[in-house]
Design brief:
four-stranded antiparallel β-sheet, 451 residues, elongated, Threonyl-tRNA Synthetase, Chain A, domain 2, Plasmid transfer protein, alpha/beta, ten-stranded mixed β-sheet, Rossmann fold, binds adenosine-5'-triphosphate
Length: 451
């Protein structure tokens, strides 16, 4: 038995050294320490080969000459810290004079091959310090979120980034977001992860699901208001605008500005109100947004204008009142009529799942991160759930949400049903719980008689 264990350890370690395919379990057992050894042993020569070294400084040359010692070699960035993680390694490098973060970013692919890692990415932490993240295997193939994450009051972990770090949806940093993707690209699973992440928090969930409620109604126990058709959605959005105005009145009443109130204590949004007075924040999830913007008659056109105006007002003014928009759809461009591009401009967070054409990717990233457009159209069809996420800083990353089934999301919502707040303004839209009446089966045409 002992010999068998020794042989197993040797074979697995050899697999790592010989660069065979390394799955996640391999990485967790041996990979991290072997990779750390490999990086430390080869660091100087790899950096030199990748063009990440600088010639020795003048004073070092002078000291060598004065002391009659050999000429010092080129110098690589200093390793400030090396840390093994669940998915790979994180290196913190101190740049030498003359180097910049772009040099390291441009060499990531060379570093990946040289250190035999699956992926290497870099980002500047502060002037002169760059963080290089290395992953040992494809972390997006089968997403496993870490057991502990850095969640916050309005910050939920929703996906894993390709560099192994957790992708958060932080409503206070990025209040409104747009999620696009072709059919079967993984939008609903992403939205389900969001709902499951928000369910345990002190937040009201409001849903508009124009697929007749099939995605959001099973999660109804955790929702304070739901609408499953454009008529109900128009009324619900008007009620939300009225709620927003009430919250603003409350903030005004609490400001009580006098000469002796320090600037920092003047409330300008719900988060600066005392906790006992603070209205509960509201996250509005809209699935298949294009359905709200389509119309076939004059009446429907009026309803459409009402919906888009209310959404634009919530996007413009909602943040301070604690109302956050999460809009999902297949396309969201100017062909949906007036007001759409104005509304889109307010949606800071952008996520694009697989899209069928460049113009759909442009709707998500054309105005903020043009190089993310190419990445979005390259997502393969056999990887549903993989998405590109970007923000107004121009940065973007490849992410994938863990596969959460509808059953798991329903269980999470039911477990936290007692947290569902009652919002008087939205009371008429509170979902009625119970088993819905069976729907009539679609009529089947009789088979024509044949001779
Ligand atoms: N993160 C993921 N990991 C693994 N599989 C996924 C992931 N996301 C989605 N899928 C799979 O992809 C398929 C489509 O997902 P989903 O229903 O979320 O797509 P969609 O974009 O909402 O499609 P539609 O617009 O037609 O409703 C599902 O079978 C789902 O199991």
């Amino acid at each position: 038995m002992t010999w068998f264990m020794v042989a197993l350890v040797v074979v697995v370690a050899a697999a790592g050294l010989l660069r065979w395919r390394r799955p996640a379990w391999y990485w967790l057992t041996f990979g991290a320490s072997l990779a750390m050894l490999r990086v430390l042993v080869r660091y100087g020569s790899v950096m030199d080969a990748c063009g990440l070294t600088v010639p020795p400084s003048r004073w070092r040359l002078a000291v060598a000459r004065a002391t009659n010692r050999p000429v010092p070699g080129p110098r690589a960035p200093r390793i400030l810290r090396i840390r093994p993680t669940r998915t790979g390694l994180v290196l913190r490098l101190g740049l030498r004079p003359g180097q910049d973060a772009f040099d390291v970013a441009a060499s990531c692919d060379r570093l990946r091959h040289s250190f035999a890692m699956y992926g290497v990415t870099s980002r500047e932490l502060r002037s002169g310090v760059v963080e290089v993240r290395m992953t040992g295997y494809d972390v997006l193939k089968r997403v496993q979120m870490p057991a502990s994450t850095d969640a916050g009051p309005m910050r939920v972990p929703v996906a894993l980034r390709e560099d192994g770090s957790v992708h958060y949806r932080d409503y206070r940093a990025v209040p409104h977001a747009l999620t696009l993707g072709a059919t079967e690209s993984g939008k609903s699973v992403y939205q389900r992860n969001l709902v499951a992440g928000l369910a345990p928090l002190d937040v009201a969930l409001v849903g508009i699901d124009c697929k007749q409620g099939v995605e959001l109604f099973p999660l109804a126990r955790r929702f304070s208001a739901l609408a499953d058709n454009p008529d109900a959605a128009a009324d619900l959005l008007d009620a939300l605008v009225a709620h927003m105005e009430d919250v603003y009145q409350l903030i005004r009443a609490e400001q009580r500005i006098t000469a002796d109130v320090p600037d920092a204590e003047i409330a300008a949004d719900i988060w600066s109100l005392p906790a006992k007075l603070r209205p509960v924040p509201v996250v509005v999830l809209v699935d298949e947004v294009a359905e709200l913007a389509l119309y076939a008659s004059k009446e429907e056109e009026k309803r459409r204008d009402r919906i888009i105006t209310a959404l634009a007002r919530l996007a413009q003014l909602g943040r301070a009142a604690g109302i956050y928009l999460e809009i999902c759809g297949q396309r969201f461009g100017s062909e949906l009529g007036k007001g759409i591009t104005m509304l889109r401009a307010q949606l800071t967070g952008r996520t694009a799942h697989r899209v069928n054409d460049e113009s759909s990717a442009n709707m998500a990233f054309g105005d903020i991160a043009p190089d993310a457009v190419l990445a979005a159209i390259q997502i393969p069809t056999d990887m549903p759930g993989v998405a590109i996420t970007g923000d107004s800083t121009g940065g973007w990353a490849r992410i994938r949400a863990p596969h959460t089934s509808l059953r798991q999301a329903v269980n999470t919502c039911n477990r936290h049903a007692n947290r569902t707040p009652d919002l008087p303004a939205l009371a008429p839209f509170r979902p009625v719980l119970g088993i819905p009446a069976p729907a009539d089966a679609p009529a089947v045409e009789s088979i024509p008689a044949t001779a």
